[in-house]
């Protein structure tokens, strides 16, 4: 069995370099020498994954004030799972969901050009405008109401900068392990604002290019919940073996018997359905993801 200290050191190397990325916008077509996928894959099966048949629902609560935190001056960031210098052996991932970062980037600043491979990367802007450039030749701006996805596959380089010089940008950065390695890298973004659902769940991501939202190389479904106070709903898990991870953007909701407030995270698995009640006007991200590959 791998020594825990060695395990943590090795499995987190792939994330450690991003917090110190330079402000260079230069892109490159050179494949990364080391695979973030291979380093991070060692974590699957380590935490929050059922290893035997369990008949009752299991859950894990991540209160907002227990997340990892770092302030780099230009970047103010909270980590729901271990990332960069935040290392918590009990918060490595939730199934194939590896990274959930809540980022605030200062005006005119951003992440310099850096590599990824074999990871599904989703960005959801919450405020402001985020400029993207990558080694595939894509140059784009995403804003609140957009969803961006990259399949890093065999390897890409990209940068992300706050387009504006007079205001910050806030966005969620989400990584998932893919169900296929070494696919052709791809980029896509869509606007979901005009299709926004009131008092219901809006699908923004799925495994199928023919379904609503962006698509990924993984049996995952993401939804945005937008509810007025006092609404009740239910959600059925899309696929046997998947778990659900809730992340509250605004307001307060109760999932089954667990009350969640702004920026709380809550994972449940070994269940087919959950109940959702809004305690106030609320918005949340619901991620339906495999608990193992």
How would you describe this structure in keywords?
Jelly Rolls; seven-stranded antiparallel sheet; 293 residues; disordered N terminus; seven-stranded mixed sheet; mainly beta; single chain
Describe the protein's architecture and organization.
- The model is unreliable at 1-55 (pLDDT under 50).
- A hairpin with a 2-residue loop joins strand 18 and strand 19 (258-260).
- The chain is built from three helices and 22 strands.
- It is mostly beta strands and 293 residues long.
Instruction: Indicate the percent of residues in helices.
Output: under 10%
Envelope shape: globular
Strand pairing plus helix content: what structural class? mainly beta
CATH homologous superfamily (4th level) name: Jelly Rolls
Task: State the separation between the terminal residues, measured CA to CA.
Answer: 20 Å
- Total number of β-strand segments? 22
